[in-house]
TrEMBL record:
This is tRNA modification GTPase MnmE. It comes from Thermus parvatiensis. It is found in: Cytoplasm. GO terms for molecular function: GTP binding; GTPase activity; identical protein binding; metal ion binding. CDD domains: trmE (cd04164), TrmE_N (cd14858).
Length: 433
């Protein structure tokens, strides 16, 4: 990517909207804007000001739309460059023509994420914040939105920076020890700093799953014997009658999906056919499908009717399965503290079940940290090198420590970051961001 030439793109999504935004950034952006504008000359506007006028085709003088033109001046803009935004009516016809005249006037079509790339290159945000921009644009659930905004505000970057600083101090000490061996650091001190750093990195990694689920959503499967009350529980969780419920065992034959947002996570709840031994080929297909859905789910609710003798459990991924005892309003046939008692009829126990669901999905930390796949990889690298450093005598610790610092620095994109790393961040962006 060239670095300063004027780039332009439609910043609003395809389709019709009340308004649409075309962005233009780079050297000469104001001159270029002036060429396609009838109204107050944008070159005379201060940064942060706007004016009302018309976008025109300079070849014919034809007006393309009435619009607002916003001016931002370097370095006080999103990209850090001179930047102009045209707020037009949001039809594909208008936006396409505005883009065309800008291209004809000498701008180039921006690549994916090129505006944010320039912001990064110009020091307006670091690499973790650039990833937060992407996450914020793509956020569907409340939690994803909160995670991304916090990262954009710099919470994660500051945390990493502070960690780097402590390790840099230690590295400086160790290097001083090599140069002036008689004034060494206490070995204990180095170990404490490393252990604290390791705990912090592991704390972050512990939130990776919550972040992934918040960003990508989670699948929740309801599994259990026929008549256990799975469909009733699904309806109770949803708050409306989505699935058929009846006293006839085998009511649900195929699986059924319903969207549901809990704790800010977009969930898909999957109701399945009752699991039992059966000769009926159709029912057997339903059972096989139910067990496969359990295998692929992020979380399973194993649903058992507490008013009847306990059935033999089916094969389930128990490490991510919550056990639920239904029909808690009826006299119990057994007690088991590993099961959460609920009644879909009275609503009893539903809050406790939701609390358990929340902890199973988000962990005890609550999952407020955005972690991208790239960041998780870097943190895993940092963790490995930290563990390695802990096992080394102090005079050999330096090298491992440098590698820890390199992994941490790549999170914020400070120092020398491989071009491929940066490219990987921006390749996921859409054009116009
Ligand atoms: N008393 C009481 N009855 C319940 C409760 N939950 C479900 N039932 C009843 O149990 C029967 C079976 O409920 P469903 O929700 O259809 O059970 P299911 O597990 O989906 O059954 P299949 O689809 O056949 O596998 C129905 O008659 C429900 O009214 C509950 O909490 N209390
Ligand atoms: Mg059912």
């Amino acid at each position: 990517m060239r670095l300063r030439d004027p780039i332009c793109a439609i910043a609003t999504p395809p389709g019709k909207g009340a308004i649409g935004v075309v962005r233009l950034s780079g050297e000469g952006a104001l001159e270029l804007a002036a060429r396609v504008w009838r109204g107050k000359d944008p070159r005379g506007l201060k940064g942060g000001r706007f004016t009302f006028g018309e976008v025109v085709d300079p070849k014919t003088g034809e007006a393309l739309d009435q619009a607002l033109l916003l001016v931002f001046r370097a370095p006080r803009s999103y990209t850090g460059e001179d930047l102009v935004e045209f707020h037009t009516h949001g039809s594909p016809a208008v936006l396409r023509r505005v883009l065309e005249v800008l291209l004809e006037a000498g701008a180039r079509l921006a690549g994916p994420g090129e505006f944010t790339f320039r912001a990064y290159m110009n020091g307006k945000l670091d690499l973790a914040q650039a990833e937060a921009v992407l996450a914020l644009v793509e956020a569907e659930g409340e939690l994803a939105r909160r995670q991304a905004l916090r990262a954009l505000e710099g919470a994660f970057s500051r945390k990493i920076e502070a960690l780097e600083q402590r390790l840099l101090d230690l590295l400086a000490h160790i290097q001083a020890l090599l140069d002036y061996p008689e004034e060494g650091v206490e070995p204990l001190e180095a170990e404490r700093v490393l252990r604290e750093a390791l705990a912090e990195v592991e704390g972050l990694l512990g939130q990776a799953r919550a972040s992934r689920l918040a960003q990508k959503g989670a699948r929740l499967a309801l599994i259990g014997a026929p008549n256990a009350g799975k469909s009733s529980l699904l309806n109770a969780l949803l708050g409306y009658e989505r699935a058929l419920v009846s006293p006839i065992p085998g009511t649900t034959r195929d699986y059924l999906e319903a969207p549901l947002e809990l704790f800010g996570i977009p969930l898909v709840a999957v109701d399945t056919a009752g699991v039992r031994e059966t000769e009926d080929p159709l029912e057997r297909m339903g059972v096989e499908r139910a067990l496969r859905i359990a295998e692929e789910a992020d979380l399973v609710l194993y649903v058992v009717d507490r008013s009847l003798p306990k059935p033999a459990p089916p094969p389930l991924p128990w490490e991510r399965t919550l056990k639920v005892a239904t029909k808690a309003d009826l006299p119990p046939a057994w007690e088991d503290p590993a099961f959460i008692p609920v009644s879909s009829l009275t609503g009893e126990g539903l809050d406790r079940l939701k609390e358990a669901l929340k902890e199973a999905l988000l962990g005890k930390e609550g999952g407020e940290v955005l972690l991208t796949e790239r960041q998780v990889e870097a943190l895993l690298r940092a963790r490995e090198r930290l563990k390695e450093a802990l096992g080394l005598p102090q005079d050999l610790m330096g090298l491992a420590l440098e590698e820890v610092l390199e992994a941490l620095a790549s999170l914020r994109g400070e120092g020398r970051v491989a071009e491929a790393v940066v490219a990987r961040v921006f390749q996921n962006f859409c054009v116009g961001k």
